[in-house]
Amino acid sequence: MKILILHSIKSQLKGFILLNLVYNKLITIFSKEKLEFDLVIKNGLNKDNVFFENNWFKNIQFIPGFKDLWNRKKTNYDLIINLSNSPYSIIYYYISKGLKKNTLHWFNRRKIREKSSFERESILAKNIIQKIIKNDEVKLELPSLKIEKEKLENTENLINWLLRTENLKPLSLSKYIFFYLKNSDAKTETILEMINLTLAQKKLKVIVVIEGQRKSQKESRLVLALKKIHDKNFYFNFKDYNDLYYIFKFTEKTLFSITDSSYLNTIGEIKKWRMIYLDNNILNNSESIRAIEYMSYHLKSLNPL
Fold first, then answer.
1. Are 51 and 151 in contact, with CB atoms under 8 Å apart?
2. Whether pLDDT at 215 is above 60
């Protein structure tokens, strides 16, 4: 069974989760068929994204020209699925030859605009699968994650070695709160209050990593403020590691984590990690108070020995 998927990617989440859910559900639905997938994608593709696996597809094409689009009429598919509302994908969808064709329409997306990326992508995936199998009773599994177990274990071993060189306990025995944050001024006061609440516990450590911070990048007010914290239990940018596997390990082993990264938060939802997600780019006064109160509640529930 030959399947063509037309799609566009907008960020680490927007598009990747939808593609992941649709692909995995089709594998389940047509489990008795020999499947062959082609992907035509409008935007660039980050093959390191944990929601995507390159080997899902026999052929991947990026923004093919109109000559290729016309030649595509010579290829016959059993099923063509359009997951994008871009004009190019829509034209491609109508020109391509398929025994069955299904598309997501722009009005499907307007109704769910206010939901989180994960919720939106899940709703859209369910919608297209319902169209394909002509059945409203569709249950989706959680997205699959491309995480190399051996690399994850090696990362933990390296972190533990670094901790031992500083006479500290290994990660699995450490009581710490992990902050993974954008290099932004938007939530500085709220984050500093959360860190101070944690350090006031005395027996808890704080590890902070700033997302994708480059040495050439101008330091934000948040970074400057964090550098002024001098506490034996405070670790900022932990050796400047921004490798995603380090972030996974810190988040997996922490008592709980605080992040404003929708990417990490979504992975945390799937892995059932304990997290506080600072959703909005800018927190108003009531949102800030609520986040700090939530932090206080979590700290009290830990009751560290």
1. no
2. no
Question: DSSP labels for 27-89?
Answer: HHHTTTS--EEEEEESS---TT-TT--GGG-SEEEES--HHHHHHGGGSEEEEEEE---SHHH
Residue 140 forms part of a structural domain: no
Q: Does the predicted model carry a pTM greater than 0.90?
A: no
Reduce the DSSP state of residue 239 to 3 states and report it: helix
The helix-helix angle for 244-253 and 262-271 (nearest 10°) equals 50
Summarised one tens digit per residue, pLDDT across range 233-254 is 998 876 556 688 999 999 999 9
Tell me the residue range of the domain where 164 lies. 149-302
Give domain status of residue 189, yes or no: yes
Phi-psi region of 52 (alpha: psi -120 to 50; beta: other; left: phi over 0): beta
Residue 180 CA to its chain's centroid (Å): 13
| Distance from C-alpha of 243 to C-alpha of 288, rounded to nearest angstrom | 29
How many domains would you assign to the chain? 2
Compare 87 and 110 and report the one with higher pLDDT: 87
Same domain, 156 and 294: yes
CB crowding 109-123: b at 16 or more within 10 Å, else e? eeeeeeebbbebbbb
Within 10 angstroms of residue 246's Cβ, the number of other Cβ atoms is 19
User: Does residue 216 contact residue 183 with C-beta atoms inside 8 Å?
Assistant: no
CATH for 80: 3.40.50
Q: Which residues contact 288 (CB under 8 A, 6 or more apart)?
A: 187, 189, 190
Contact in structure between 193 and 292 (CB atoms under 8 Å): yes
